[in-house]
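Batch job 17 of 40 flagged for manual review because the log was empty.
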Amino acid sequence: SGLFWIRRNAVKKMLSNKRSGSMDQFVASIITFLFEATLLVFIVNTFAISNYRDNIDQIARAEILKLETTGELNRDTVVEDFNNRGFKLTSTDIIINSGTAGKVDYGNPVSILVEYDAQSTDIGTIGSRILGGTHHIKIYRESISKAR
């Protein structure tokens, strides 16, 4: 029974003995995890916004190509093209040829400006349903008219 008592005390002492610095390691691990999670969310959101902006830029490039080959472009048609592809723009968000109307002759500059505030929920960023928010998108394209 004496040997049992010594073993029991040794096991009790071993179980109740804490390593020094274990709380410090735990806090450091939690802070590192939070930092890594925040960094991951930032990277994913930055990629989503960049991808969204690139998609708008591709549509604007296609529209400027139409504009430079025909010499004119209907703003309502451009807005409809954007909306058909899932972007929520209005006619006030698009400026064609710096706001001048009419047909552009060969060799004259042509431009399209798309500028609006996109909702985070439309972009699909992480946490957008909870945090909300908007992102200012501005795309400007210009070329020279080749219409004859």
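Reviewer: the log was empty due to a logging misconfiguration, but the result itself is present. The first helix runs from residue 2 to 16. Unflagging and moving on to job 18.
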